[in-house]
Amino acid sequence: MALKKTHLLISAFVVFWIFFIGWGMFKTTFQLTREKPPILDLDDKDAQQEIYPQQIKIDEAATGAPGIEAETPPILVRTFKVKPTEFRDVLPVMGTVKGKTEIELRFEINGVIKTIYFREGEKVKKGSLIACLDPLDAQLKLDYTKNKFSSTQAAYNASKKKLEVHRKLFEAGAIIKSKLEEMELESESAKFQLETVKCEMELAANELKKTSLYATKDGLMGPREAEEGEFTTPQDKIGSLLETSEVFIEVGIVERDINKIKLAQKARVYVDAYPDIAFEGVIDNIFPIVEGKSRTLTAKIKVANPDGLLFPGMFSRAEIFICQLKDALIIPTTSLIRASTGVTLVPVIPTQSIEKTEAGTEIGFLQLRRVDLGYLTNDYAQVTKGLNADDLVIIEAQGELKDNAKVKIIGVEELSF
């Protein structure tokens, strides 16, 4: 009986607590549904801070001041200053120095070389003796023809005297006419024989002259290709005579640059022997054939060489002036914007729009200008219309370039040659 009472008391206690907790939850929910949200006064910053403290902190961090909309920062740009300049577009090439003329020296007759009078690289004058053959055979032949000429001349003189005698005898009636005519034929034959021997003598004298080899013009002696005591023929080369008062620089032009060169274009030539000297020249000749292996076109640059500083065979570097412009407005091609309509635009910062801040930085406003182009290269473009001197052209930007956009200048470059 006592155990039954205890169970009843515990059950009643549990039911009481369940009823108490449930009533409390019902009362709380009912009060929350009846309350209205507080009306926030936009001018009451303390109320805003109390109700939305986290949002206020975020707004202040983004704008620098509570309640102010964030301002778009200026675009950082690097610029190029436009100014009139003398522009030269050059084509760099490499080549080899060649003499104006290269004459191969050979004897005209066979013989044994007696003496060689030149050294390699020696400067010689026109008419200087280069080498000579042993003249003994040629001299003997000349002496023989001289003696033969003297003998033939004596025979011719004798025939003339006989002819005079026969004419007198014919006039006196001592001989018949056929005898006189026979004597006239003998005298005429002696005359022709004398002329033949005279030609033989002149030929022998000329052959003796050919035993000596002379320089045909002023120049520089090339490699020596024969030695004293050697037997030589007209096919054997003794050496080379290089005319160096003017020289040619043979350069190779690749196919993509062939249309850039033409006759009479100016050029500057440099050699390692004189790194501080620029030799002026002009394109004198352009070969009409592109070589198969190198796929280059050979051009010759003529250079005056009065001091003889340039030697054939020297390696050289040359700059061919493709285009020369005076007072031209030149900008980098990286500034050009090709529009879909076919026009060309350039992002420009007019000088009148630039203001300097307290921090020392320069702020300006962007204009997209339509321009007309003249001469164009891979790196630079000539602007003939649309730009003014001292305008700043944007060459690099950290953002999208739009008309009237605010920009901050972080660098200015200028063209220099």
In round numbers, the mean pLDDT is 83
| Unreliable residue runs | 35-69
Name the beta content range: 35-45%
Helix content: 25-40%
- State the end-to-end CA separation: 120 Å
How many beta-strand segments?
21
Question: What features would you describe in this structure?
Answer:
This protein has 5 helices and 21 strands. It is of the alpha+beta class. Among the domains are: 26 residues, no CATH class; 97 residues, conserved putative lor/sdh protein from methanococcus maripaludis s2 fold, CATH 2.40.420.20; 112 residues. Strands 2-9-12-11-10-13 form a 6-stranded antiparallel barrel. Helix 4 runs antiparallel to helix 5. About 8% of the residues have low confidence.
